[in-house]
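Hi,

I'm pasting everything inline rather than attaching a file, because the server keeps stripping attachments. The sequence lines come first, and each chain or strand is labelled.
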Amino acid sequence: MSTPKTSKPIDRRYIFLILLIGVALPLIFPLGFKSEVSDISRQVYQLIENTPENSIMLMSFDYDPATNTELQPMAKAIIEHAFRRNHKIIAVALWPQGVQMADQAFEYILEKYPDKKYGIDYVNMGFKTGGMVTIQAMGRNIKDVLPKDTKNTPFEEIELLRNVRNYKQIAYVISLSAGDPGLKQYVMAAHDMYKVKVSGGTTAVSTPGFIPYINDQNQLYGLLGGLKGAAEYESMIKVKGTATSGMDAQSVAHILIILFIVMGNIRAFKDKNQKA
Amino acid sequence: MKRFLPLMVTFFIGIIVISSEFIPHKPFSSINAGLENWFLIISGFAILLGQISLIKVNSNKVYIKAENWQYYLIGLISFGVMVLCGILWGTQDANGILGSHVDLSKWLGSKPFVYLFDNVYQHLSSTMFALLAFFIASAAYRAFIMRSFESNLLMIAAVVVMLGRTTIGTSFTAWLPQGWRFLHLPDVANFVMNYPTNAAQRAIMISAALGIVGSSLRILLGIERSYLGGGD
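And the predicted assembly:
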């Protein structure tokens, strides 16, 4: 008895090679297609745009270098927008490596805004363990939770924090989040318990899980979803950053994956017919 | 007594924390504030525990020469180097026990800890995450096959959302007149995300929340005791 012949699948190394070329070429030779801005990204922009000048915002860096490509462009774009609006930024991190990500983002933006001063316009309060309980405790007294910044300057000696006690003095919270703890905990603790406006950005893969929080109760004021969200934000603030250039590469990768799905289905269809 | 005491502590602490949500006044609010501080302190120790565990598990693998023990050794050495750099020369702003060592920092361009983070860890970490794209592409070719009505539906939704989230996909239907705008790929992708996906996500979230309430009550009432260790 002979077994029905099945077609040989493409060697996965060819798939890897095609994808590598497909991602690399648009990075070297940008295609220049434009991203349309979605409503949820526009809400984030409007939150910052409509908040009065000199307001204080809390920016939480809840990610590590693994998601750098998606979340760091968001951080840079949001900091730039906030600086343009003269908002003061208190940076914190619920992830240990978030401290370095914050430093890198500020360092990059300060080249464009050299007049912004540490301790007056922005401050990095560093990493704090504890996740949701940390966010909850900041609602009572931020100083208790973050007594010193990353330079070991005591809370009371930092000019930006002189009148900051808890979330009542914070205009809005932005969390850039790659998982737990992160944006979800800020929605549950900072917004739901202390009624502070919360917004942020996530990796593309976790975006659908946050869309239910964008509702009539404004649990979440918009959301930047993945690299596309970052590219949309860059286009709103009229900056061509790494997200805008990266979107071409991501678009080609998506198209290639769709082509692979089609090819896989054609192969499966052929095999099915041969078996029949 | 060995089991009774932890069960009682769990019950009373749980009741205090729940009560403070409904009665945000003294004494519940102040007790809850104290408990939050306790939690933050214990969380700090959890990091230390994690590091001890990492050293113990990896050292053991190297000691018994388990399969691929060389990688565990590299992991241990990397961990040690980062910790040493942090302790000796400090991190970004904080000084180490040897001060900031200006000469070394000048030679490297930054402090050793920051240099390793920026030039080694960051790129390795991004690379690991980026590798996912290659596996997804390979898996898409092999596994994403139309076999049933449900898989067809899933595939059509996936293709629409993927195209709608790309700049190229946007340009495919950008020519559509205003009256046909509802067929514009980003709008169709947003519809899929905002309605069917959102509805399913909400159902999952509500179910998970009910599950958490149920399991929390089981722990508070001492029905679920697995966190104490042992069999029952």
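The mean pLDDT of chain B is 88.

If the labels don't parse on your end, tell me and I'll reformat.
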